[in-house]
Specification:
The protein is mainly α. It has eight helices and no strands. 73% of the residues lie in helices and 0% in strands. It is globular, with a radius of gyration of 18 Å.
Length: 171
Amino acid sequence: MQEELYRRFSPKMYAVCLRYAQDSDDARDLLQEGFIKVYRNLDRYRGEGSFEGWIRRIFVNTAIEYYRKKSLEYSRVSEKEETTIADADISVLDELAVKDIIGLIQELAPGYRAVFNLYVIEGFSHKEIADMLNISEGTSKSQLARAKSILQKKVEQFLSDTNKSYSGKNG
């Protein structure tokens, strides 16, 4: 039963872990810890909603706990910065491969990465994120805006480097 669960859900849950982890080693640790929690709590699944959704929630919570345990400081943004940071357009992300996107997200500071993942990928509200991470809603909003801005710059640099590399091969 456990082996079957692992085979079926580990690829998707590993992707979740990668989005929150600093690197692949941390992601593997999160994957292991998450599955231990799934196995220990199987009797708590009540059949409400999808089983995969239930497992995913365990992994997201595991990632949040991991983040808290690391005790890494959030980058604090002043009130003035909160009102001046523009919400960057990240539609250019469509041009990147998933592994490239994950790599760029992993480069974000832990606070930015957590808020970005929880809001953009997992769909939590800023209020929910604030409660989960023990920060204010304003901090959640400003960290999301900052994460998007940083990602936009990273994506532009990545695409520029890729284009230079590509044109160098053909030129």
